[in-house]
Amino acid sequence: MEMAESLIKQGKAYVDDTPKEQMRSERMDGVESKRRNSTVEENLSLWKEMVNGTKRGTECCVRGKLDMQDPNKSLRDPVYYRCNPDPHHRVGSKYKVYPTYDFACPFVDALEGVTHALRSSEYHDRNAQYYRILQDMGLRRVEIYEFSRLNMVYTVLSKRKLLWFVQNNMVEDWTDARFPTVQGIVRRGLKIEALIQFILEQGASKNLNLMEWDKLWTINKKIVDPVCGRHTAVLKDKRVLLTLTNGPEEPFVRILPRHKKHEGAGKKATTFANRIWLEYADASVVSVGEEVTLMDWGNAIIREIKTDDGTVTQLVGELHLEGSVKMTKLKLTWLSDIEDLVSLSLVDFDYLINKKKLEEDEDFLDNLNPCTRREALALGDPNMRNVKKGEVIQLERKGYYRCDVPFIRSSKPIMLFAIPDGRQKSTSIGA
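and the corresponding structure tokens:
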């Protein structure tokens, strides 16, 4: 406030009561305000009205007296201070006037000893204004170092646009796994280490970058894959029973590692039985007489395929544990047909907009993706009762998942969010 008053006294700033729309029009056309050449006394009198938050004061603002003819419109007498008598959320009613960014940034940077102000390149046209204001203030020069904003494909990063999704219930809230907020992508399954590594790899580039999400998710996979526990699931509505004629008469349990190469992932109890569930997608491609590998068990030979109107309904086979797993084409995940399998809800996400890059004149509302969340019910191995909220696991042959809602009771499914791995069609987080 002292600096603003000092500039008024030096004739480098003036108080203007031109209506907002008229002021905007005059700045565009290079027309000087009728108040531009008011006396210092007149300006100080109106400044006092602003400081006191009077009705007259609320009609005024302080403008820098720069150059109304400059082709760079940011130098056409920008606003330095506005009057706002409403209480502030931190300082209450202590102040009735507040500086604009244009005025505050150069002043605070110089005052606090900043040597280089890092600013995104969208402010490039305002750099001349920044230097001119510093010069008028008589403060030391602060160098501006520009960098380009990070833009992601199929994504809007504008908080105003993201707010629209929240207010219109297109997402749960700001932590929704489809959002490009830090909380959103972490909820989707991204590790903070991956985000930091990704950002450091970008550097402070001045080129306008449109980045793919795949690179970020590939880094993330390298972090989670070596340590996350492995589990098994089959889709509830798309499963087929395989009866093993020479399978164990009574189910038995083996303790196996949750991750074959990482002891820290712990152990899991796997039940072996003569009736096991397979994914329909697997059951529909086997043939009679074919030898397949049941993962973590051994080989089996398919002896009979029962169908109903072309749809596979049941398989019959026999274990052939002495068979070589190297000779089989199909390596199948399976679950024993037992009562304590857990219910799962597997959730996959897609981008909130369906265009890779929105041009300046394009409205994101015209490019909304109609389907951004898909949910499939599945059955999982009983060990998944112990998976904690936020834990990342791998469902064998399905992909990586983050647990959003852990096991609470049998009637409520565990909710798992699919994590992109950088290889599949990137169903990113991207809003």
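(Above: one complete record from the training split.) Residues 243-336 form a domain with the Ribosomal Protein L25; Chain P fold (CATH 2.40.240.10).
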